[in-house]
Amino acid sequence: MQSKAEIYKTIKLLESQKESLNVQLDLGIIDSDGVRDELNLISQKEKVLRDRLVFMSHVTADGEPRAISHHEPTPGNPKDYYSTKMPDGKKIKATTYDGLMDKLFNFYTNGMKDYSLESVFKAALYEKEITENPNQQTLYHYKADFSRFISKDMAKKDIRSITDTALKSYTQEWVNRDHPKQKTFFSYKGVLNLIFGYAFAHRIISTNPAAMMKNKPYMKSCDTRKARPEDKILSPEEIDSIRQEVRYRMTRKKWGEYYINGYAMLFAIETGVRAGELCALKWEDITENSIHIHAQQLTKRESGKKVYYYDTCTKNEKGISQDGREFPLTRKIAGLLREIKELQDRLSISSEFIFCHEDGDWIKTDAYETFLRRLCQAKGFKVTNNHALRMSLNSNVLIPMNVSVADRAAMLGHSIQTNLAFYSFAQKDYLENVRDLLDSQDENVKGTLREPHNIVPFSKKESSEHLISQAF
Question: Against a cut of 0.85, is the pTM above it?
Answer without folding.
Answer: no
